[in-house]
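Please supply some protein, with fold tokens.
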Amino acid sequence: MYTQGVVRKQLYLREDQDALLKQRARELGVSEAEVVRRALDRFLASPEEDQRAPEEAVLRFLDLAEEVQKHHRFPEGWHFRREEVYQERGRVKP
């Protein structure tokens, strides 16, 4: 246990985060606090743009989808039928 050079912090986690944290700590054979410290080290070491990358990727995708939607229209009365897609691929519907 740490006695010097550390600061005690208290935080609130969602129940799903708590369960995943406990699971990861068991898998790694370390304390939950150590998992949090490692995650925090990794987060703080990343450039800010890396931290925003997933959000920016989603926004770019949505922009692209909006642009495609402006220029592409499905034929009048067209409907997506999942069963047909499964049949075309030779798969059984789940």
The two ends are 50 Å apart (CA to CA). The longest helix spans residues 48-71.
